[in-house]
Amino acid sequence: MRGYSIRTATPDDLDGARGVMLDTVYRDFGTGYVPRWHRDIIDLDGAYVAPVRHTLLVAVDEADGTVVATGALDSRGPAHPPNPREIAERFPSGETAQLRRIYVQPAHRRHGLARLLVRQLMDFAAAEGGYRAVYLHTDPAVTGAEPFWRSLGTVVCDERLLPDGGQGIVHFEVPLPVPVPAPRALAGADRAS
Question: Helices 14-27 and 35-42, interaxial angle, to 10°?
């Protein structure tokens, strides 16, 4: 079994993370880089590292130190357009933790990395506070994406069922975990003797 570590991305991880993301939009999505959809991939620091309440996680193959998976979270809700108005209204910016760029290189799939990344992103959202909901959308044409997200969240809009078919995207809400409070000091431990 390969060994992996998941950590908050450092400046040294950004090129590797960008590579995983660009490989995914070219190979899995078949769209290539589209600035209006993928601008954050070029400026990972500005999108996820520098802003408070945002984060970028990477999974690193311990055998060679390469970034093999990514996961990000930000406080930007889905925009209308291109998303349905009801989705933009339900998940407003500032109150919504949006899961983004949960990508795993093909050779490293089926090791639970995506699920671990999501768990840590959800823990980040709960600890950060101020988030009322966790949102994401996925392209069901990407192999395995829709069943994975259905195992973690609830579909709130399947655009394939809209009269015009929308963009064919499926929108999800994932339950926000309750933050675990820090353990309280033993009674009397903070009193002077």
Answer: 160
The boundaries of the domain holding residue 63 are: 4-174
pLDDT digits (tens, 9 = 90+) for 60-97: 999 999 999 999 999 999 999 999 999 999 999 999 99
Overall number of domains in the chain: 1
Task: Reduce the DSSP state of residue 187 to 3 states and report it.
Answer: coil
Is the pLDDT score of 179 beyond 90? no
Q: How far apart are the C-alpha atoms of 140 and 159, rounded to whole Å?
A: 10
Q: Which helix (H) or strand (E) holds 7?
A: strand 4-8
Is 32 within the bounds of a domain? yes
Q: Is the entire prediction scored with pTM above 0.85?
A: yes
Q: What is the CATH number of the domain that holds 148?
A: 3.40.630.30
Residue 163 to residues 122, 159, 167: CA-CA distances in angstroms? 33, 9, 11
